[in-house]
Specification:
The structure holds 2 protein chains of 2 kinds. Helices cover about 70% and strands about 0% of the residues of chain A. Chain A contains 11 helices and 4 strands, in the order H-H-E-E-H-H-H-H-H-H-H-E-E-H-H. Chain A has helices spanning about 10-35, 40-55, 70-80, 80-95, 105-130, 135-165, 180-215, 230-250, 255-260, 275-280, 295-330; strands spanning about 60, 65, 265, 270. Chain A has a two-stranded antiparallel sheet. Chain A has a two-stranded antiparallel ribbon with strand order 3-4. In chain A, helix 1 packs across helix 4 and helix 1 (about 10-35) packs across helix 5 (about 105-130). By secondary structure, chain B is an all-alpha fold. Chain B is built from 11 helices and no strands. The longest helix of chain B has about 30 residues, at about 170-200. The chains are: A mainly alpha, B mainly alpha. Chains A and B meet through helix 2, strand 1, helix 4 and helix 7 of A and helix 3, helix 4, helix 6, helix 7 and helix 9 of B.
Chain lengths: ~325, ~280
């Protein structure tokens, strides 16, 4: 699932980067709160463990082998925040030193494998574990969580691929990056993950979890007693934010002049360029569309991404203050 | 004589029976594959650890900065001329390296290039000839550029150089720890895999479940190592602050490297404007 460079446009990578920065910042803060300085070596060694885990080949039916990513397993063992940082570091080392996965695509890879996978997997695991309250429930939770985690990560990668031909084409209308639309990229990514990789991930996670639970149960991350639904909601929102920004890229209100002609109005193509726009609206006139391809677009994306992130943080703070007040009034 | 020995040692009856064992091969391809991938990681780390930075090489910080710039320019550019020029430049750079390193670098970049080419073939049948040529060329250029960087510099220097792209010091410390412990945990996992391979003969269903045991053991050992390392760091006066020191002198090699890369940037701007017109 490591996306190499040049499959995604630089602006897509920027958007994913804008989404990852606050995630990592929150994760770093959370980890620091949990066990302070002691976590520093653990983060490095956890990253090394996550790296080594991807080296294990697991036998598959039919004589082939595959490897697990272990995002959900790490989240269950170390807590989702530490897992997020560990996987990020492991991915950085793979991209920078082993040439596996792109440098520019690094934020996108992080988003899929260091954020979506551990957090979704962990929330599903926690939810099922709490609802059932038994050890069997925990096992079922980790199986379903890791299966869903890797499949959602693959789905996000597929969407990132599939949006490229919609958003980034050259003068002749040919895609500049990944040329396959969503209708091809989603089945191409999802079928192998749903049928094979997801099962490998689930089986591996359950087996390792069961082993550690049996041998050294104290090592498994305890976490907060109850997962606040707010966190789950926020995770989903952060997941959706770059998608929304990407999808809005050329959808509404950001048309180029050529595109305006094709915009449908009342079922008919517009067929002309609104006069005001052809003169006064071309903010990028000195650098027409393809000059420094991507840059004007990217600026727009980054701005909207920053706005999205700011809105999320504001929401987060407001909800947080409500909870604080509630707790305070309970004491008072 | 024999009878006496048997009586004195008391060899049981069953051991004297002749048996024909049909040796069935169990499935252990996954163990071999795991061993191979671990070995390749370990050998890569060791290979870069022993190399010494030569006097005539550019500063790693400069290299990291320009390699990142190159990756961005390759991704943004739409000019076949620019990409072709970059490919030539990278091949020239490769040609100055040792054969062993060239093979290693080309192996990685060619596999990804061929993969990209095959993935793009169906799109080419629909008439998208642009991606079929440009994307594999770009993929090849990017992977080659990054691998030249990683093969020609000590990794600890690369992580240190990340400071110049505003990476916080504490992150650089974590990266360094990670590289060292990939080696340590990798060797531990390797020993466990060898033990599994040696001790299970023939068909053995539990061989596959042992893999979970190995991962679990590696995890538990990693937690112990983290604690030990923290204690060791505290003993040596670690206060939670870490400063990566970057010493750099401007050398002739740096100047040459900068000139070459500035001309690449100039070419990028020139081709970008040409495409525009």
């Amino acid at each position: 699932m490591h996306i190499p460079d040049n499959y995604l446009s630089p602006s897509t990578c920027l958007v994913m980067g804008a989404a990852m920065v606050p995630v990592l910042a929150v994760a770093a803060k959370k980890v620091k709160e949990e066990v302070s300085q002691e976590r520093i070596p653990l983060l490095g060694i956890g990253a090394a463990f996550s790296f080594i885990m991807m080296m294990f080949n697991i036998p598959l039916p039919g004589g082939t082998t595959g490897h697990a990513v272990g995002g959900t397993l790490l989240a269950v063992l170390m807590g989702p925040y530490a897992a997020c940082i560990s996987v990020t570091v492991a991915l950085l080392i793979q991209a920078l030193l082993f040439g596996d996965g792109g440098i520019l695509a690094f934020p996108a890879n992080c988003f899929n494998m260091a954020f979506v996978m551990p957090f979704i997997g962990y929330f599903v695991y926690k939810f099922i574990k709490e609802k059932t309250g038994t050890e069997k429930g925990a096992i079922i939770g980790i199986a379903i969580g890791s299966y869903l985690g890797i499949n959602l990560a693959a789905l996000f990668a597929a969407i990132q691929f599939g949006l490229q031909p919609l958003l980034f084409t050259n003068e002749a209308g040919l895609p500049l990056y990944c040329p396959y639309p969503l209708s091809i990229s989603i089945p191409a990514m999802m079928i192998p993950h749903l049928l094979l990789a997801g099962i490998v991930e689930a089986v591996f996670s359950v087996a390792v979890y069961a082993f550690i639970k049996r041998v050294s149960p104290g090592l498994i991350h305890q976490g907060e007693k109850k997962v606040k639904p707010v966190y789950a909601l926020l995770t989903v929102l952060v997941c959706l934010s770059p998608l929304g920004i990407l999808a809005a890229g050329t959808a509404w209100g950001e048309w180029g002049l050529e595109e305006i002609q094709d915009v449908l109005s009342g079922g008919k193509a517009l067929g002309y360029v609104p006069e005001g726009m052809s003169k006064g609206f071309s903010f990028n006139a000195p650098l027409p569309d393809y000059a420094f391809s991507g840059l004007p677009d990217a600026a727009g994306y980054v701005l909207s991404a920053a706005a999205g992130v700011a809105i999320l943080i504001i929401l987060f703070k407001i909800i947080g203050s409500f909870m604080h007040e509630k707790a305070g009034s309970g004491i008072g | 004589m024999d009878d006496r020995l048997e009586k004195s040692v008391g060899i049981p009856e069953w051991i004297k029976k002749e048996e024909n064992q049909v040796h069935e091969m169990g499935r252990d391809a996954f163990i071999n594959k795991s061993i191979l991938s671990l070995l390749s990681v370990i050998s890569k780390i060791k290979a870069q650890d022993t190399r010494k930075q030569s006097k005539y090489e550019a500063n790693v910080g400069v290299k990291v900065l320009f390699t990142f710039g190159l990756v961005i320019m390759i991704s943004v550019s739409r000019s076949p001329l620019f990409i072709a020029a970059i490919l030539v430049y990278l091949l020239l750079k490769l040609s100055f390296m040792e054969a062993k390193q060239i093979i290693r670098i080309l192996k990685i970049s060619l596999i990804m290039t061929v993969f990209t080419f095959i993935v793009l073939l169906p799109a080419a049948i629909w008439g998208n000839s642009y991606s079929l040529v440009m994307l594999p060329a770009k993929v090849f250029a990017t992977i080659t550029a990054v691998n030249i960087l990683s093969k020609t510099s000590n990794w600890s220097n690369i992580t240190k150089a990340l400071k110049s792209v505003f990476m916080p010091d504490i992150f650089i410390l974590v990266l360094d720890i990670t590289i060292k412990y990939i080696l340590l945990l990798g060797e531990l996992a390797l020993q466990l895999l060898y033990a599994l391979k040696l001790r299970s003969v023939g068909v053995n269903r539990s061989k596959q479940t042992s893999l979970a045991g190995i991962s679990g053991t590696v995890f538990m050992r990693s937690e112990e190592m983290a604690e030990e390392m923290y204690d060791a760091m505290k003993c040596r006066g670690f206060t939670g602050e870490y400063a990566a020191i970057e010493r750099s002198r401007w050398t002739a090699a740096d100047a040459l490297y900068t000139i070459v890369n500035c001309s690449i940037i100039a070419l990028f701007i020139y081709t970008a404007f040409n495409e525009m017109l």
